[in-house]
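Q: What would this chain look like folded?
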Amino acid sequence: MSTGEERPHRHATGRSPAADGLAIIPIHGLPDVRPGDDLAELIHAAAGDAIIDGDVLVVTSKVVSKAEGRLVAAPTDPVRRDAFRRDLIDRETVRLVAQIGRTKIVENRLGIVAAAAGVDGSNVHADEIALLPTDPDASAASMVAAFAAHGRRIGVIITDTQGRAWRNGVTDVAIGAAGIEVLDDHRGGVDEFGNELVVTQVAVGDEVAAAADLVKGKLAGVPVAVVRGLDAPGLGSAGPDSAAPDSAAPGAPDRGAPDRGRLRGGGRSLIREAGSDLFRLGTDLAIELGRRDALAEVPAGHQELADDARTVLTAWHAPTHAQAALREAFLALLAARPDATSRSCVPGHLTASVIVLSADRRHTLLTLHPRVGQWVQLGGHCESRDGTLAAAASREADEESGIAGLELDPVPVALDVHPITCSLGVATRHFDVRFVAVAPDGALPVRSAESTDLRFWPVDGLPNGAAADGLTEAVRLALTRVMARTPGR
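A: My prediction, written as structure tokens:
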């Protein structure tokens, strides 16, 4: 036996919120609403006796914003207007959730997560832009009270248009409500087969908002509709100052609440709390925030280098499937580490090297590397002053060959990843981007202090170990590139 208080099971098979069906009626004849207008009186005058007890008035937030003066003077020039609107979006944003291109999904001052913070330049004058109402629940409650003064018991839902994750298209949702329960909570109830409902909450407010939009539309000029059949309890039942969810409104008929679950009102009740939001961050933004947390600063000049590397590698046509797979590893490193082009990136970093071919394409210039003790192509670390991978490769080739006038192809010919203990003094990896350059006729190399030896080798007679190190394949790809771009050879 349980010594604690047990929650009684409630059956969820009783009368539905609209068991006898719904009627959806557009309200025509509203004027162009302007700041200071009494919206409730305008709706009452336009609707007349078309609104009866129990109806739900569904009102587009745009017309509420107009009446409440939530219009901002804006430039009429399209370019300036767009820039001004984007500035307003930033001002209304409290948290960036995700961004793809110019589209931002944000949390606004109301706690609503949606595109563009609800800032809207449609269905307003060309020199205006509309913001959302400052308190949609209070706006809805005010209209409920105004109709009560006319002897009408109604509910009000204020709507806005939103997209949905994983779904194309937009629909209207409830952002404010009063006099009508907008969240039907069946958790703890039992269905007709005896199964306990664990997570079921029905967003009645959003369902009503979407249904009403079928007669309002986005271009029809009908900002208000009436939904009949829900028997809205009116004053005292829902909204910011509502009674407890399980209590009945004074004078409201018994609608079978024990069968329908715990009912809640107010648009705020439809906003998921941050602690239970499984999708609080967009994937790309989460990666970016992780990068920022991991590295407070990117070494000066390396952001530009990393941007160039991403652009170059994304556009690069890999010559083999193996090279294409390597390219994805390079891009993954660049995505994970903003300092990926700096030697300070201990897990690994991008380097730039050059296959230098003689003018007759029969020889390639190799250096005997003092640290690894092998013959390798010219190259090394990227420096902050380089700006681009090609510039880094060109600088390394000039410094290590002593040859003036090398003609560098700015498009990579191959990629390679190899373990090494470089100038960091610890084990790391070089993600090497390999280019090709052709030396002028009669070029004589000059050994630098970074080399034990420097000489031209026949392309068909490379030193031992070249094949295992990928040098043979890199020279072949370099020759293929140069010969393809040199007619007659």
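The CA atoms of residues 238 and 275 lie 24 Å apart.
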